[in-house]
Amino acid sequence: MRKLVLRSALALAIAATAGLGANAALASPAKVPSTTFSLFPNAVNIPCLAKTPGKTPTAKATVTRGSLNDTLTLKLAGFKPGLAFDMFTVQNTNQSATGTPVTIPNFGMAWYQSDIEIGSKGTGSVTIKTILLDQIFGFDPAVGLAPTNTFHVGFWFNNPTNAAGCGFTGTTPFNGEHTAGPLAFITRPNAATNLGPLCTDPHKVGTTFVCNP
To answer: Distance between CA atoms of 190 and 98, rounded to whole angstroms?
Structure first.
């Protein structure tokens, strides 16, 4: 179940009223009410994405926590008009925290979240409501897949021919017909925790970080 978002001041006041000390209240800090983060381009495809040659497009997401589900709004600017993309939350990213390419076997667990269309001005926007912050996961006991978080957000070219000029051939499964193009933009992990931006409440277990749901 989703946890209600409480401001720290309110949590302290309730704890004091109940006769608990401030230290007890601080032991369970409130979840952040929202978070904003950028997505970054798959560098090889920038020429096939940019409206203005030499100017990198931008993609920024804001996620607001809700009591039952969360709301994510993604805004794109500086893209070639007419492009279409497919947005997913995924387990793995192919970029490091500093933007260095990372070799990964695949993107792991992936959830199809929305389509995105770029208008005549080179901008696009999409809003979704679902479980996102700290808890988003999938599992499949039929194949032995344990609950697996998808804390990264990325979007792929819907039409592979739109990326042909950047050297792409073939298809990827990242659209409804499973005939999408390559990755366009994706998030980077936090440098300290190595977790994606949909985890806002990390804690350390042994030598690695996990997300507190």
So the answer is: 9
Say whether 17 sits in a helix, a strand or coil. helix
Number of neighbouring beta carbons within 10 Å of residue 24: 14
End-to-end CA distance of the chain: 10
How do strand 84-90 and strand 70-77 relate by DSSP bridges?
Answer: unpaired
* CA-wise closest residue to 91 among 76, 64, 111: 111
Check the CA dihedral 177-82-152-183 and report its sign: positive
User: Helices (H), strands (E): how many in the chain?
Assistant: 3, 12
Where do we find the tokens 């279409």?
84
In one-letter notation, the amino acid at residue 97 is: A
Cβ-contact 104, 94 below 8 angstroms: yes
Written in H, E and C, the secondary structure of 87-100 is EEEECCCCECCCCC
Report d(CA 138, CA 110) in Å as an integer.
Answer: 8
Query: In 10 A of CB 75, how many CB atoms?
Result: 14
β-partners of residue 70 are 130
pLDDT along the chain (213 residues), means of 10: 49 40 48 98 98 97 98 98 98 98 96 98 98 98 97 98 98 98 98 98 95 96
